[in-house]
Write a structure and sequence with these properties.
With about 260 residues, this protein is mostly beta strands. Strand 3 and strand 4 (about 40) form a beta hairpin. Helices cover about 10% and strands about 35% of the residues. The chain contains 3 helices and 17 strands. It has helices at about 135-145, 175-180, 225-230; strands at about 1-10, 10-20, 25-30, 40, 45-50, 55-60, 70-80, 80-85, 90-95, 100-105, 105-110, 180-185, 195-200, 205-210, 220-225, 240-245, 255. Strands 8-17-14-13-16-11-15-12 form an 8-stranded mixed beta sheet. The protein has a 4-stranded antiparallel beta sheet with strand order 1-6-3-4, with no helix packed on it. A 3-stranded antiparallel beta sheet has the order 5-2-7, with no helix packed on it.
Length: about 260
Amino acid sequence: ETIYEVVVPEAGFLSVSVRDGTGVDIDPHLLTSMDPEDCVARDDHDFGTLVEAGTYYVVADTYAGEFNGGDYRIDIGLVVPSQGSCAMQTGTMQRLYGRGPLTMPATGPVVKEAHLVTDEEGYGSGWPSSINAGMTEHYDLSQGNSGLVMRRTQSWAPQESSQYGQGSTGAKLPVEDEAWYVNMLWANRPAGGTRMIIQANGRTVVASGGYETGPFAGDHIAGVTEEVHFYLGTGHLSEMTVGFAVDEDLPLGPIDCD
């Protein structure tokens, strides 16, 4: 075991992720004291949990003793939710491909979306050469910008009729929008960066709409990034509520609603 003391300066979402090599199996744990009975979170690869200010202990532990030990990388992050109004606009949103109008805010299955290239990737006027090219660097960039630590596994958006990692606008996203983007099958795509509210499991995220269109299936109301799913504690096709924010000045990411 290796134990890391973590001092949390204010309440927020503490996340931990371990990257280990072949034959290495390191599991992260979070404790509120050095007593093993005070373990409040653990997982094989990553976890995130809401915490109060205070001192915590992150333990990197082999699954089966010395036989699974070896080199590893552990990342620890804290995201402090903003505070603001989570009010959503009411009305009807027209959808493409004859899917019919959607009453907003809408509640239903939401897919897990792929990653989109940001304006800080270093590709210039080009794009990734394959579905996974440069993904490790992209994960690190996203993590460093958002402060959200997790085991990211999604690849670039598929090439189809565009480029790998390219959204509907054909342009690269601002890096701060990419971790928290949301797409819908909007007939009239809103401007990139339009603030939207995503809710599930008693938690809320302010997301950035207008960069991508989809999903194609009419019974899937929207798509969000794996980062949004991770914070909300949801997965692919979980039921969520999605709506256009009344307040367009809300910062992106987790929010505690007034």
